[in-house]
Each structure stands twice: as C-alpha cells, then as structure tokens.
Amino acid sequence: MYKTHACGLLRPEHVGQRVSLAGWVNRRRDHGGLTFIDLRDRSGIVQVVANPDTSPEAHQILEDVRNEWVLQVDGTVQRRPKDMENPALPTGEVEIEADGIHVLNQALTPPFAINEETEVDEMVRLKYRYLDLRRQRLQYNLELRHQVIKFIRDYLDERGFWEIETPILFKTTPEGARDYLVPSRVHPGEFYALPQSPQQLKQLLMVAGVERYFQIARCFRDEDQRGNRQPEFTQLDLEMSFINKREDIMDLIEPMYTEMVEKLVPHMRIFQSPWPRLTYVEALERFGTDRPDLRFELELADVREIVRDSDFNVFKQVLSNNGTVRGLNARGCGSYSRKDIDELTAYVKEFGAKGLAYLILDEDGSVRSPIAKFLTEEMLENLKTRLSAKPGDLLLFVADQAEVVNESLSRLRLLIGDRLGLRDPDILAFCWVVDFPYAFWDEEEQRWEPSQHLFTSPLPEDIHLLDTDPAKMRGTQYDVVLNGDEVSGGSIRIHERELQERIFKLIGLDPEVARERFGHMLEAFEYGAPPHGGIAAGLDRLVMIMAGEPNIREVIAFPKNQAARDVMADSPSPAEAEQLEELHLRLIDKK
Ligand code: ASP
User: Fold this and answer.
1) How far from 390 is each of 317, 360, 362, 417, 524, CA to CA, in Å?
2) Quick one: which of 94, 75, 67 has its CA closest to 11?
3) Is the distance from CB of 405 to CB of 353 less than 8 angstroms?
4) What pTM was estimated for this model as a whole?
5) How far is C-alpha 231 from the geometric centre of its chain's CA atoms?
6) Which of 89-103, 164-178, 399-413 comes out lowest in average pLDDT?
7) SS3 207
8) Ligand 1 proximal residues by C-beta, below 6 Å
9) 151 by DSSP, 3-state: which?
10) First and final CA of the chain: distance in angstroms?
11) How far is the CA of 550 from the centre of ligand 1 (A)?
C-alpha cells in the first residue's frame, strides 16, 4: 500500500505522526522561498512542504511537479504556524513535512482544471469523463449515489427482501419504449431484447415463492433522447407477494425515502409528511399534470363558466368545440412588460397553445388587458375572485382542448414558479398520485394503451367496466412524484391468467402474438401465482434531485450524451464484417 492515511482526514490530533500519503498534485505554489503543494485524494486535500536543508531531494521534486502528477509522500504531520492556518480547509490546521517524495506518474496538462469547478463544455467533460469524475462535484455525486444504494440495500434487507439478479439478455419487456435487440450467433435470425425493466422476471420470482425481491436493476429503453433520459438507466426494482392494496407498498416506500433523506441529505427538508395523496383527476385539475410540483401553489383554475357568455371570440370558439379555458395567477407579476408577456406567450406556444390571454391588476385595482373590453364587469370580478387576485397580480389564461391547456399551463406554472423563486432545491415535495385511468385511447393506433403497463391490475371495484366502459376503469397504479418529477411507479399486478388475457384483448393484442410473447407469464399464472405487487424507483433521478443537480448525466459515472453516444469510447461504432457474418446480419445501405 502506498498510503497509511487519507489526505483530507488529517487533523491536529495526528500532529507528530509519520504518514505515507498518495494522491494527485492539486496545486503547487511558491511562497517565501518555499514550495508548497496541495496533495489531493478522494477524501480531500492536505498541504505538503519540504525543507530544502534537511530534505533537498524532496524539495527538488516539489519544485518540479505539475498539477495532476501522482505522488507518494512520506513525512510527518505538523501544526501549521498560526498565521498560515486555513480555516476554509478541513485540514487547514496541519501540513505534512515531507522527507521522501516519489513520483508515481506524470500527467499531461488536463483539458480543463481539475482543482476548480469552472464551467466546461459538456462534450469535453464527457470525452474526458475520467478527469471530470476526479473533480469535487462529481466525486460527491458518486459517493452520494453509493450511499443511496447502500441505504436501500440495508433498509430492504432488514425487511426481509432478497436481492436477486435477473437477466439482461431476455425477451421483450415492454414499458412503452422501443427495445434494444441483441442478435444471437447460435440461433440465426433470432434476437434477445434487453429488458426495459425486470417487470416479468420479478413477477415470475413471486410465482417462484421468493415473496420479497429487490434489485438495483439496469433498464434499457431505446427512446429519443429528449430531456432527462438515458438509453440505460438504473431502477430500484421491487416486488412483494401476498399484498392486495397499494398501501402495502406505500407504507414501505414512504418511510424509506423519508429516512434516506434525513440520513443522507440532512440539509434538505421534506415539504409535507405524510406525503399528500392526489388522485390523477385532482392532480390534473389543480396542476394540469400528473407530476405536480407541490413546493408552491399557483394552482390552475377552470374559468369556463365565468367566461362562457363573453364576446371574446377565442373563448367562444373553444367553448363551442368542447374545449376549456383555464387560468393561473402569477402573483405579483403585474409589473411585467409587454415583452415579458410576449416571452410567456412564446413559451406556451411551444406546448401547443395558440395564445395567452392576460389581465394585469394595477396597484389601484384597475384592470389592464387587451381582452377586458370583451368581458363584462361582473366577469372581471368573478375572474379576480376565482383566482384570488390582488392588486399587482398578473392573470394568465389559455383556451384550447383540455390536453393543450393542461400541458401549456402546467409548464407555464413551473416557469413562473422558477421566476418567483418558489422552487427551492433543498425542499423535497413528495406526493403519491393514484387512481390513474387504466388505459388511454390511442387515436392513431385505434386501440387502448395502458397508462402503466399490461401487467397492472385494474382496481377490483372497476374490473366490471373492462368490457363495458374501459375509459372509466381505474388502475391500481401509484406514482411517487418529487418536485415535479416522477421518481417511482408501481401497481398491484394481475396474477390470474383469465384477467391477464382480458387485458391483452383490451389493448388489441392478438391472442396468438400474446402467447408468443407472454406465454410464459400466462402459463406461470396457472401454477399457483400468489397475489403480488411492487414498484420501481428511478434511481438516477432521485440521486440527481438529492445532489441538487440539473440532469441525470451528473450522477451517472459514464453517461451517454444527448444523442445517445458515449463520446469517450466513441460508441456506438461500426462492427467488423466477420462479426456481422457470424451474427447472420447484413447491413442495409441507408444512403
Ligand atoms: N416496471 C415498472 C416500470 O419500470 C414499475 C413497476 O410496475 O414496478 O416503470
């Protein structure tokens, strides 16, 4: 071993001890004829100095080294002279008086500073990921991620869960995305699919009598890389037998997250405990989305009835087409300029809205608005009351079909929340969303699409709607939403062949195809499958939020870029002709 101690942990209590340290040169500086370096390892940095009279060789090496060289340092811990102490540094009261220094490796000048958290272009960071990871911010993120996983393992182990690995080379496990396929060499023309989740396998483990399973599971989904997604990501995947209601899972998961936050990120605060529970319908009504950010109010209001008889053509047309008009109160934004409002309008247009109507409430109580002339005095008063508006507020309205109104206003709500500083990253607003519609009608495909996945059970009291009115049937699904992000989702499952086949039929899966793809599930359900349910939690997203990071790439050691490329290893990359031959594949010339 090159080291007896960690650099960042040395304190006055070590004064007088001989130590061997190893790490990287974080910084070198000359000061009053002496050369100092900060030696850095994973634990932090410590100052090293060598006396030119008693240790001339060590002193010479300190003069020669450059940032990021790798050194072993032998020496004695000593107290720094009082005027040389650095209270900003955990090791700031001590330094190492070195008498032996060995250069273990040299380093080129790195493409960006390792010893500072300067802004660096993300492409460069990803190309030199091993250097980026050396920096403090990502070291913290890696450690936090490790602690989160360790916490989960301990928590579930204490509650009787077994961690079981399931195959990566499997068969299609649909979660609504495209599969990654792996061609088989030994079975010409056949393919494995990488699991989009271990869903079927964990259910089969329940049939297998495991009763309580979990896994820190890698999942693969071939989706367009918009926003915060990665082609491969990690879930805490979990399943339990002999449960029949969602509370059985909620009572396990809610304390897990709560204790984890208290232990690992004590500077963060859980907004409300117990977590609020919203139905899907309520979430849409109040926030326009099933992933509401509950850190702030600014709730949406339905104003259809108030403006039904207005002379404003846009409202009239939308309402006669069965659309809706909803608004929100941007509190205190009454001083927004025309340009500000144009910006907000452009923003909602990105989400399909055709425009943004507004009312400004001046400090004297009068209303300014291009649409005011189409509204009666009474309508204006009612709008103010409905949105509990005060002088200085800005009321914003979108009129369109419900989906467009919800999408654009829910996004606008977040934007206004950001602008008003209402989205404190240290506040964690968890909630449960339940009572989702079991399935949505897919107009394009002309079929029902399950809102979770095909193994979710409908609510028992709604199963009778399966053949008569599927639109009204609710699922047993539950989602955990955190600060506007979905961080977990699960359900009570189907465990009987007959019901599973009826669901396949509902979503228009041909019985022949269903048997081909999911025959193993149907069969297993006939051999004493216990009632069961579970949940999966997106680990990347959770760690991202706990680390206060803006995207999941910051909490994944080796992420792909937005175009699904690994720019460090330059992957994906072409295959050799022989490899393709062995796999019985021929490429189509896409030109
Ligand atoms: N397999 C589901 C998913 O990946 C979660 C679950 O139902 O447990 O979203």
Assistant:
1) 29, 10, 9, 18, 62
2) 94
3) yes
4) 0.93
5) 13
6) 164-178
7) helix
8) 175, 197, 199, 489-491, 534-536
9) helix
10) 56
11) 24
Q: Residue 517 and residue 514: Cα distance in Å, rounded?
A: 5
Helix, strand or coil, per DSSP, at residue 21: strand
Q: Do the bridges between strand 162-163 and strand 212-220 make them parallel or antiparallel, or are there none, so unpaired?
A: parallel
Segments of 211-259 assigned E as strands: 212-220, 232-241
**Is the model's pLDDT at 590 over the cut of 90?**
no
**CA of 253 relative to ligand 1 center, distance in Å:** 14
- Beta carbons of 417 and 298 less than 8 angstroms apart: yes
Cα–Cα distances in angstroms (integers) from residue 347 to residues 7, 114, 412, 590, in the given order? 50, 37, 7, 37
Whole-angstrom distance, CA of residue 427 vs CA of residue 269? 5
**pLDDT tens figures, 514-556:** 999 999 999 999 999 999 999 999 999 999 999 999 999 999 9
CA–CA separation, 456 and 462 (whole Å): 13
Name which of 414, 431, 430 is nearest 422 in CA terms.
Answer: 414
**Domain architecture of the chain: domains with CATH:** 7-105 (2.40.50.140), 124-277+533-584 (3.30.930.10), 296-423 (3.30.1360.30)
Q: Which two tokens stand for residue 498?
A: 């007959």
Q: Which of 175, 233, 250, 539 to mutate to test the pocket of ligand 1 (most atoms within 8 A of CB)?
A: 175
Whether residue 86 contacts residue 109, with contact meaning beta carbons closer than 8 Å, is answered with no
The single-letter code of the amino acid at 90 is P
Rounded to whole angstroms, the Cα distance separating 535 from 43 reads: 35
Q: Please, what is the angle between helix 246-264 and helix 136-158, to 10°? A: 140
31-81 pLDDT tens trace: 877 899 999 999 999 999 999 999 999 999 999 999 999 999 999 999 999
The HSE-up count of residue 128 (CA atoms within 13 Å, CB side) is: 15
In angstroms, the CA 148 to CA 548 distance is 14
Largest CA distance in the chain: 94
Q: Coil, strand, or helix at residue 521?
A: helix
Mean pLDDT on 139-145: 98
Write the CB contacts of 16 (distance below 8 Å, at least 6 apart in sequence): 76, 77, 78
SS3 content of the chain, % helix, strand, coil (to 5): 35, 25, 40
Q: Give the integer Cα–Cα distance in Å for 501 and 520.
A: 13
Name the pairing type of β-strands 532-538 and 232-241. antiparallel
In order, the DSSP letters of 450-501 are ESS-TTBPBPGGGGGGTTT-GGGPBBS-EEEEETTEEEEEEEEBP--HHHHH
Protein residue with its CA nearest to atom 6 in ligand 1: 490
Residue nearest to atom 8 of ligand 1 (CA): 535
Q: Which two tokens stand for residue 425?
A: 């990253």
* CB neighbour burial string for 327-346, b if at least 16 within 10 angstroms, e if fewer: bbbbbebbebeeeebeebbe
* Residue minimizing CA distance to atom 4 of ligand 1: 197
